[in-house]
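Reposting from the mailing list since nobody answered there.

I have sequence plus structure tokens for a pair of proteins and want to know whether others read the tokens the same way I do. The first protein:
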Amino acid sequence: MKKNSLCALTIVFLAIFVFQSCKNTKTGAQCGTNSCQAVNADSLTNIWCEAWNTKDSVALREMIAEKALVIDKDFTVEGRDSIFAKWISGSLPAISNLKTKGLKTTSCGCCVSQTGFYKLDSATKEGVKSQTGNYTFVWMQAEDKTYKLEVIHLTEF
């Protein structure tokens, strides 16, 4: 019961974040305006997965916003440098074959989010273990017109 309550609370938090993020405070862009570049959430997620699967740590770092947030069942990390040091650097060598299946995409102005399932292989002391779970990515357009991950939420099944 406690796990379901935590999941529900997390989903509510993410929904509030997405709706509050519809106004980009740096550019003043509002939902429904044409000041933001159109983007496809599947293509952004595919680029992330490709960078992960090819172990391209530079590309992964560039896709993360300066003040991003990663939420996992075991930890929460804020800020690009901390995310890179505490999550990507340690996980990248051990995780391979990351695949996603997007189920729901929402976009609003300069913000696009995607929720779905992931599957990956994780190298452990006992050998390679398959892992599945769900994810939510929230991407925001940055001043340089690229989309950066603001929120990464992962839950292993």
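The second protein, same order (residues first, tokens after):
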Amino acid sequence: MLQCRYRPEHSRIWPIDELHVRLRSGKVYGYIVENENRNIIALELTERRDKDVTARVLWMVNAEAGFTLDIFVSDGVSAYPSTIAEIMPVVRHIIVQFKAAEVSRRGSLVIVSNNLLERLNSTLRSWIRTFRVFKSLEAGSRTLIFLQAVYNILRFH
């Protein structure tokens, strides 16, 4: 599998966000985690948006990284703070909505924001729009895995 051969260069600040995707049976949520280097680390489609699903996505991210992150950046979804504190207790969770925040990290100031991830959401939405509606959750998941590989490997970013 193409995705298994490509190992993105990881950074220590990762934003997380959700994306709404249409299925024939209704709307589902896509969780997206991207690193500072603009590589998609995790893409998960799910029918719910709750603490259990968030925990599954964070376990995927933790396994992919292989190290402890410094900062997780998110919007104000209520499932994130408690789940991140439970699964990754040493990781700082920064909530930013529309304005970037300055955060101290390892003795220097770092500007964190969700803007790059929101831009990625726009790119994924435009790609997904060509499919109109996915037949099933499985078909949508397979397509997003393919789009993740295309974005990480073929696309200049």
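Reply #1 (J.P.):
I read it the same way you do. The longest strand covers residues 13-23.
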